[in-house]
Amino acid sequence: MRGQSLLTAIAATVAMASPVPNPQGTGKGADSCPSKALTPATWTALNIDSFLGEVAKNYTQTTTNNVQSVADFFGAPNFFCGLHSFCNAGQPCLPIELPAWYAMVAIQNWNNYMNSLNTAIGFASSILSLKLPQIVQDVFPDPIDNVTPLGNMMSIVGGMLSVVPVTGAISTVSTSVQFGLDFVNARLLPPAPTDRFLVWSDIASSMGDVVKEYQAVVSRSMTAVLNAAIDDPDNGINGIISKGTFLGISQNFTQTDLQSAVVDSITMNALGLALQAQRVFVTRFSNSKACNGENENTLCVKNDGSETFTQWSMLRRSGKANAGSMIDTSKVLMNKYGMTKHEFLKGPTDCYDKNGKTQLTNPFNRGMPLDAKAACVFNVLVCDIDSSRGIGRQGIVDYCQKNQGLDI
Question: Which of 142, 146, 132, 29 shows the shortest CA–CA distance to 90?
């Protein structure tokens, strides 16, 4: 009773900040308590952040599950959130009065979102477990299991999680992806496994480790938020739902929804990882006087305003100092995966140039790449060679190792 009285007083104070009257209903059930659209604009107009700040001073703080405690304060003692639990705010004034109901809808959506992320981790593992063995068969027939850091899979899964919707459907709109990435990186990023590698010959076991670690972080994060005081600066629910970010209408999604949004990008990236594991690299010969035998594995382009050419080739160490052409692999990339020579030969050098000559920039550190053909999604090492200067008596491998520091 005391909670309801305090709530009425707090709500009256906040309502003063929103002079626009609510539409009148029929006086029956939830219709006697008409609500506004579930949008951040409504949240701001009703000044709900300030409302929750006042609630934090008046509800009964507990040692565990403060989210349930504040729900009880609002008149909903059976509002229990958590992993595999789905709390329901009900309808306006049944039982939670406005504007508290908006806050509880946002908490409900946060809870749904966290459960969706937990589910999506399993989806992501299944998608990768189906795709990676096929890539191994196509371009990595003799897999090496102690080369590719397991952290690469962590970042891919994190990128996939960034498209999971807070409300609405799966989205690859850049603003939605950025919010998802920021949230995952801030609260759900497992420690980077610095001493473990992707087992290319047993993808399922590696993905099992990734799932276990990601889902453990989701569980810990949910528990911390549910138990924290609602105005706790680190884990309080007030801060998480502030500005109405979680106000909206949740929708379910399937593994098929997620797969259709991410499969092209993860395929291109995984192809690059498989080639990186074999120490494959692209050479870029600048200032060449002529094109030198262009084939499936060579791209040659005349430089603008010059009589010189730039030529790219994909190579792999062959013997002690020389390199062999990856013609068979290039045919697979073109014929099976639909890549062009510009994408798998020039693409890595574009990524290298755009990132200050940094090797192997990981695009998933910035969220789910929205364009599978964008620079850095498919990536291998780059070795720059100025043809006008030559490399002396060194072989290409020796030059790229000694002069450019490539681990090939």
Answer: 29
Residues 62 and 75 in one domain: yes
Strands (E), 244-352: 281-288, 298-302, 309-318, 322-325
The pLDDT tens digits for 146-182 are 999 999 999 999 989 988 888 777 766 566 677 777 8
Describe the crossing of helices 66-73 and 2-15 by its angle, rounded to 10 degrees.
80
d(CA 303, CA 124): 42
User: Is residue 387 situated within a structural domain?
Assistant: yes
Other residues' Cβ atoms within 10 Å of the Cβ of residue 371: 12
Amino acid at 378: F
C-alpha 357/C-alpha 349 separation (Å) is 9
Number of domains composing the chain: 3
Together in a domain, 347 and 257: no
Do 328 and 221 have their domain in common? no
Question: 131 lies in a domain?
Answer: yes
The dihedral through the CA atoms of 151, 258, 373, 133 has a sign that is: positive
The answer on 128 and 98 residing in a single domain is no
Range of 218's domain? 117-233+242-274
Please indicate, yes or no, whether residues 202 and 349 belong to a single structural domain of this protein: no
Longest dimension (CA), the chain: 91
Residues 290 and 207 in one domain: no
162 closest CA partner among 213, 170, 247: 170
- pTM (two decimals): 0.86
End-to-end CA distance of the chain: 72
pLDDT in tens, 303-334: 988 899 999 999 998 877 678 999 999 999 99
Mapped onto helix, strand or coil, the DSSP state of residue 282 is strand
Q: Is residue 212 part of a domain?
A: yes
Residues 6+ apart with CB under 8 A from 107: 67, 71, 81, 87, 89, 237, 241, 246
Question: Is the Cβ–Cβ distance between 344 and 269 less than 8 Å?
Answer: no
Give domain status of residue 110, yes or no: no
Token pair, residue 281, equals 């690299």
What three-state secondary structure class fits 286? strand
Specify whether 121 is located in the same domain as 268: yes
